[in-house]
Protein: prephenate dehydrogenase
Organism: Varunaivibrio sulfuroxidans
Amino acid sequence: MTSPLFGRIAFIGIGLIGSSLARVIRRTDPATHIGVCARSQATLDTAMRLGLADAAFTDPAACVQNADLVVICTPIGAYKAIAQAISGALKPGAVVTDVGSVKSAVIRDVAPYLPDGVAFVPGHPIAGTEHSGPEAGFAELFENHWVILTPPRDTDPDAVARVGRLWRNAGSTVEIMAADHHDRVLAITSHLPHLIAYTIVGTATDLEEDTKREVIKFSASGFRDFTRIAASDPVMWRDIFMNNKDAVLDILGRFSEDLTALQRAIRRGEGDTLQELFTRTREIRRGVIDYRQDKIDVKTPDADDNG
Amino acid sequence: MTSPLFGRIAFIGIGLIGSSLARVIRRTDPATHIGVCARSQATLDTAMRLGLADAAFTDPAACVQNADLVVICTPIGAYKAIAQAISGALKPGAVVTDVGSVKSAVIRDVAPYLPDGVAFVPGHPIAGTEHSGPEAGFAELFENHWVILTPPRDTDPDAVARVGRLWRNAGSTVEIMAADHHDRVLAITSHLPHLIAYTIVGTATDLEEDTKREVIKFSASGFRDFTRIAASDPVMWRDIFMNNKDAVLDILGRFSEDLTALQRAIRRGEGDTLQELFTRTREIRRGVIDYRQDKIDVKTPDADDNG
């Protein structure tokens, strides 16, 4: 019998991501003790009922006591208060990690409160669904998905290796990256697409009733993908934009310029400008498909593209 | 033995949509004679090899001779020249239809050239993939999808009914609508989403090489949906934007205003504004899901939404 990777793990927050990781640990390391902290008793009851928690807490400090690993799985806006609350209760040699979608701000908010001898290994699994809460999780969520770790330069390499192993046990491929580079890449692959999806669905919400009804009815033609993206957790996404402001505003600025240029081309009837761009964008798609066929999960594309 | 819905059908253009409809007709009306017109001999050879055409033409006028139904399946920008070319060759009592994603411009470009006694029933199947050409088609493409018909007020009701039956044979649900209303609804459900997807993928294309490489690598987090949409046929989409200019510019103007308001909220750190919108957009998603569960195909959503 091998000893578990971490003997005691504390989850602060147990939504979609936290509960999915807890399910993985139940499978791979059944001997691990899992403590769960949540603000609402209902969430804790659910986590207990689902067999995801051995002990339930509303106080983060109580939850992390004796934990070998602390996984912060709340919206990013709560991190600073959590770090302050658990600071004095962390055991020497403990490892703290998280699953947030922004990494520089997380280091800014958490690192100053961690005592010497506690390692911080910020993490971001590139996986999820538009559903929220502990009942939405499942153990296969991370399989064939990337997990990016952004440990600050002086982080204990052994802590990084162990957190990496945790994610590889979940079926993920682990990549190490600088926090600010992560935030820049994710601003374009994830944060801007979400902002745009929220915007366009919001624009549709403001249409007259009968048009809105038909937009919903005929959503198969592209819009439906946007409604799925725009159904993601509102607080989580508010905190992402509040905490990756610079990178999001930079990429949003470039996007707006490009969109304005297309608007101008449409108004002037400059078909060549449009066709040139529409041809150029196929390259990136080929890159995405090639990459995925070589490396990582392949899904069947959705089929609704006749304008 | 029942007689076929249309004894002789002529396809002008045989790409994804045309070839899929031809496949349906081969199944449901094997006695129907199918003529196909395309500009390139290679496309015609493919259509013959796939068993989709009984006769192949490069001249549209020759193709439509004796046809009971003419289905125009080219990019919209070619319609006017096609209508002029076939005008004198159409047989009295023939029905002309199409599959284009814009309907007012199509009526403007085609109707003036059709002789008395020929009915025009403009159509738009809300189905497709990002793939193009006769080999990309398949008979199931239209199953459980909408087809919108936009016949001008004075169109022969019998012609409308027969075109409707053709699509119901393909497994579609048929809806009749005014052309300008169609164009306004599709501008938001389809044309704006495509324009945005092309733009954001174009913005990514212009990034430095190393960031671009990582955008492709980590595309699972939202961006990948956009790359799929932005891989659609460039000429078809150029023509859509050139021919639905007013509706697209109107909805694009609203979208840009809304996006600018969000940009301002991010810059000022106004989290409440973001959260309020992100909560409101969930309503439309529920509408989309409810509608689809009641009426039409349900697909499993993609699963990559953790920021």
Strands of chain B lie at 8-12, 33-37, 55-57, 69-72, 95-98, 119-121, 123-125, 146-149, 173-176.
